[in-house]
Each structure stands twice: as structure tokens, then as C-alpha cells.
Write a structure and sequence with these properties.
Chain lengths: 268, 268
């Protein structure tokens, strides 16, 4: 099921600047029992990204109506919203009258084994490095070649996530998730002012717990007591193995998983 | 006129990874008297970018046939070729069987006043900085938000190009062009190992003249004797004014313009 500017269709114009330049942004949202989970937070991030990219924000009443239209009667799914700067001529210059494109699409909810959440996952370090770009850092924009190349590094289904470093050897995040570690009961995660995507679950955790956002390296990560990754679809997964180092899915991770499940129930 | 995988149509699937992630690359080529100018060089760059992005290169015979089909009987136009990783599921992971999308489109040749070439253009420095990303540097890939944001900084038609610096204050290139300067008869241009797009005209100049590729800053640029920008559509334009500094369109620029016109005639 897909809506392009409110119309049920599955194609867009070649001239759309989303296709020509990756000139847009997106949100990936869990749908549960007909409701979009953490929708307030996703819409706030979408609005903020539109402002940063100077794309006129879609009418939010209209957007909410379309989201309800798509999600009602849906038990479990993933809702993806893409906003682009719309169609424009050849060349980077944007049209004087920007008519943004909005695409809402529903996708099957991925079926992950229960033990990813309960026992933890296996992760690897990616060779592909995240570049440094303060202008774009933090945003879930459509320029995602770094993640595509990093995710293409492995094809082994026993590995669930790849951890990405930046070009200065600082640990940043997973290819599709944010990364936290816990050391002596203190939570840490990477500063995302130069690269990375500031996820909704990451923000929720930071608003609930004292988290030190800082710059850290592989050795810091491997010396941690607990590691976990998070995003809006998987929730929180502990990491049980990373680069031949074994970790326990500890109490902090389990506590946050439990807390997040409660929050998701209240925010859907 | 537009061909999508050989079919005359003006739309692509929303699921195309070019739209979802900017997962692809492009070429912008001048068409003159029915021929694509510097086509050998453009196809070589396209092939190299496909290899770097691990996108299967389109069949080159087919591509050449489609280019001829589009360009025959066309006096003057711009041909844009886009290659993407094709359609894939939600998520960065690429499909096991990649079926690339190829889009060929013809656009009106922009009408620039003759004095841009003869008298030089006015340029400005952009505030938007280029990020550092060795994995992607040099390629004409579809992740072009940096250029879009830089080009959106001005709307004054008396300014023809914006010069971009990277986050380390090094001068790199124009929003749509490469940048050279001449000092004491020696040509210089920026190293493009961390950011920027390695243009076809840039490569032709480097193959013809001794050019020092190096890292340089605003002061170096403003102390130059001559400045010029180049790309496949504009050719070479001298810069007569940049940030309140006036420059002459000097002999080196004029010589290269003359030489490039000859080369273009022989390579079309």
C-alpha cells in the first residue's frame, strides 16, 4: 500500500529531486494495532529535517490523515514516509516554487527471531567509514550511500548488524541503528554532530537516562560491560558478540528493553 | 525525451534505490550535432563509478545504442544518464540479484550569454561546506545534498557560480564545476581524494597541461593571476570577480578555452 501525494500509486516522476539528488528525508515507523508508534517524535524529527533542508513541511493534518488511512486495521507493519523537494529542472538550483513530494508506504514487519532481543545479536565492524559533514549530520536524509556500502560488506545471516566508525576511527553507530554502551552502570553513546543519524529511540533513551554523548573509539567499546543497538523497528537489541569479543546482555539493556516496550504501548 | 531501461517513459518505481537512498550515479553530457561530446570519457567514468559502488555496469553496446537513438538529429542539448542499483526491499541491504535502472534524458541546452566565456563570470564563496568522505570522493554519485544546499544560498542571477570549501577551509570546487587557478604560469587545482567530483573537463586539462593537484585555501585562490571553472556543459569560464576581488580572464584561460573547443569538435 502506497500513497504518493495522497494518490495510490507506486511510481514517481524521474524529475523528482529525491531521485535526481537524494534531495529529501525519510522516517521509518513501526505500526502496531493500527497505530503509528512514537508518531509525535517522528513527525517532530521530520519537521526539523524539512527546516534544515529548507523543504516546505507538508501539511501535518493532511499527513496525519494519510497515516491513519494507511495504518488503520494494520496489525503490525513498517510505515516509511519520504519527503522530497519535488520536481525541478536539471541542475542543483531548486525551483522558485517548491512543491514537495510525500510518499507513504507500508511494508511487512520484519520477522526477527525472539532471541535477538533476549539473547543478543552478533555484530561486526564495517570497513566503510562514515564521512564528516556537520551540515548533514544527525538527519535522516536520503543521501545514504555510506549505509548502503557498509551493509553490502557482509551477506552472512548470522551477523545482524555492522558497526560503523568515522574517518577518524571514532565509533558512531550501526548501519541501521544507534549504538550505546554501558560501563560501570553509566550509559554512553556517540556524539552525532559530524556524522550519523539521530534516531528516535536514541533520543527517548537520552531523555529517560543519564547518557554521556562523547567521542570514543573501538577500544572503549570493546571494554564495555554491555552494548546495545536500537531503532524504531527493532527496538533494543543487546550485542552478544562483536569482533570476537563476547558480551552479556546485562541488566541495563534488559531494563531499557522493558521500559521501551511500555513506552511504545503508551505512545501508539 | 526520456528512456527508462530502454522504454520511453517519465517515471520510475518508488522502490528504486536511486529514490530511496540516492544509490546510484550520473553523467551530464553535451550533445552537439547529433553526437555526445567526450562520450568515451563519460562512459569510462560511468563504468569506474559502477565498479566503486558495486553496481553491475549496464551493457555498453545497449547504452551506446540508446544514446544514439536519443541524440540523432539533435543540434544542441544536454544528455543526462542515471544508473541506480534498481529496486530493492526496504532497508539498506541490496537485493541478491541487482537489476540496475538506467535513465537517459535529454534537456534543453542552457542559454548562457557569450560574455560568460569571453569576459568571465562572477562567483561567490558558499557557506555550505563539503564534508570529508574518501569512500565517495571524486564520484558523480546521486548523494548531492551538499551541492543542492550550496546552490540554494543565492538567488541573484548576476552570480553564476558558488565556490565551495571543505570543513577544513580548503577550497575544493564550484557547486556545478571544477575550479583551477593559474599563478606565475603554473596551473593548480584541488586534490579530490576527500570530497568533490572529478569532472571530465578537469581530467582533460590535467592530461594536457602540467597541473599541480594540491590542498589550498582561500588566500591562495585570491592571490592567483587567473581563475576558471569548467564542466561538460559550460566548457571553461574565467572568473572575473570573486568575493570583491577582480581578476582578468588571462592568456592561460583563453588558450585552454580555444584548445577545449578543438578537442570537443574532435571528440563528438
Amino acid at each position: 500500500m502506497m500513497l504518493v501525494n495522497g494518490v495510490a500509486q507506486t511510481h514517481i516522476d524521474v524529475t523528482d529531486r529525491g531521485f535526481q539528488y537524494g534531495d529529501g528525508l525519510f522516517e521509518t515507523i513501526t505500526v502496531h494495532n493500527g497505530k503509528a508508534v512514537f508518531l509525535t517524535q517522528h513527525i517532530a524529527r521530520l519537521t526539523a529535517a524539512c527546516q534544515r533542508l529548507h523543504i516546505p513541511c507538508p501539511n501535518l493534518d493532511l499527513l496525519h490523515t494519510e497515516i491513519r488511512q494507511l495504518c488503520q486495521h494494520v496489525e503490525q507493519a513498517v510505515l516509511k514516509i519520504i519527503i522530497t523537494r519535488g520536481s525541478g529542472g536539471r541542475g542543483y538550483r531548486q525551483p522558485d516554487d517548491i512543491q514537495p513530494t510525500r510518499v507513504l508506504s507500508l511494508h511487512p514487519f520484519p520477522t526477527y527471531p525472539d532471541n535477538y532481543a533476549t539473547q543478543g545479536i552478533t555484530a561486526r565492524f564495517c570497513d566503510t567509514r562514515l564521512g564528516l559533514n556537520p551540515t548533514l549530520a544527525g538527519m535522516k536524509h536520503l543521501n545514504r550511500l555510506e549505509q548502503v556500502l557498509a551493509r553490502a560488506e557482509w551477506n552472512d545471516d548470522s551477523i545482524q548488524e555492522g558497526i560503523m566508525l568515522d574517518i577518524n576511527d571514532c565509533v558512531i553507530e550501526g548501519t541501521m541503528s544507534n549504538l550505546f554502551y554501558c560501563k560501570n552502570d553509566q550509559l554512553y553513546t556517540a556524539t552525532l554532530t559530524q556524522s550519523g543519524i539521530a534516531g528516535i529511540i536514541r533520543a527517548l533513551i537520552i531523555s529517560h537516562e543519564t547518557v554521556i554523548e562523547h567521542t570514543y573509539n573501538k577500544a572503549d567499546l570493546l571494554a564495555a560491560d554491555e552494548l546495545f543497538v536500537c531503532n524504531s523497528v527493532i527496538g533494543i537489541w543487546g550485542i552478544k558478540q562483536l569482533a570476537n569479543h563476547a558480551f552479556a546482555v546485562g541488566n541495563k539493556t534488559k531494563y531499557l528493553q522493558h521500559w521501551l516496550t511500555q513506552q511504545a504501548t503508551h505512545n501508539a
